[in-house]
Amino acid sequence: MSCCPAPRTLEDAVEARYGALATSCCAGSLSCGSAFDISAPQRGEVLVDLGCGRGRDVIRAADRVGDKGAAIGVDRTDAMLAAARAAVPPYQRNVRFVRSDLASLDLPDAAADVVISNCTINHARDKEAVYREVHRVLRPGGRFVVSDVIAEQELPQAVREDPAAWAACYGGAVPEAEYLGAISRAGFARVDVVERSEPYEKGGVVVRSLTLRGFKQSPPVGEGGGST
């Protein structure tokens, strides 16, 4: 596989793009699927949103899970987190936001019933590391629903090395088989493709959006229930 931008260069590009979008009234939806709706959070559950942006889905989740549940938004862009915290209604006490890298989540093991993400994991240099963290923070039997961008074929090196392309949600896209392989190696044995868009052109390359649902297996009867 061709190279990708240096970590600091990539972080700066993503921070610049999403920092500007955090306060833009014309930003529109930054998602690429319906991860929240498909995840169907239930009363009493804990939901984690990776790349929560301005917190819209986190606030919706807080209403859905109720006082005995919780909704946690994770992002690494300070401006997005500030916008998200400002949007929380005063009555909602079951919401919090965490600044954290997705490949090293500042969350305890087995903390969540459901993890969602919309058009965010494509920004990660190591997608398998992100999914290992998703596996770690899910409780046994927990689920994830992720909408993300994938490439129809391996991207040209010039695109893979362009930090602006990564920030724009296509430079870090990988082919579907590679993406699913990263999820499998992270420990998820059951993953379903729930939605697959038609291919579309972005930045001179062809990509598409996938929405995936996966489950963390419960341990066999008689074995311990700790995170694996």
Rg, Cα atoms, Å: 17 Å
Major sheet size, sense and barrel closure? 8 strands, mixed
Structural category: alpha/beta
Give the tally of structural domains. Answer: 1
- Spans of 5+ residues with little confidence (pLDDT < 50)? 25-29
Can you name the CATH architecture? 3-Layer(aba) Sandwich
Order of helices and strands: HHEHEHEEHEHHHEEE
Classified in CATH, the superfamily is Vaccinia Virus protein VP39
Helix content: 25-40%
Could you say which overall geometry the principal axes of the C-alpha atoms support? globular
**CATH topology call:** Rossmann fold
Distance between the termini: 29 Å
By DSSP, the count of extended strands is: 8
| CATH domain class name | Alpha Beta
What's the mean pLDDT score?
Answer: 89
Strand content: 25-35%
Distinct helical segment count: 8
Key structural traits:
Rossmann fold; 25% strand; alpha/beta; globular; 8 helices
Structure, briefly:
With 228 residues, this protein is α/β, with parallel strands linked by helices.
Write a structural description.
- The chain is of the alpha/beta class and 228 residues long.
- The chain has one domain: 3-Layer(aba) Sandwich (Rossmann fold), CATH 3.40.50.150.
- Helix content is 31%, strand content 25%.
- Strands 1, 2, 3, 4, 5, 6, 7 and 8 form an 8-stranded mixed sheet that branches.
- Helix 3 links the parallel strand 1 and strand 2.
- The longest helix has 16 residues, at 7-22.
- The protein is globular, with a radius of gyration of 17 Å.
- The two termini are 29 Å apart.
- 43% of the residues are buried.
- Residues 25-29 have low confidence and may be disordered.
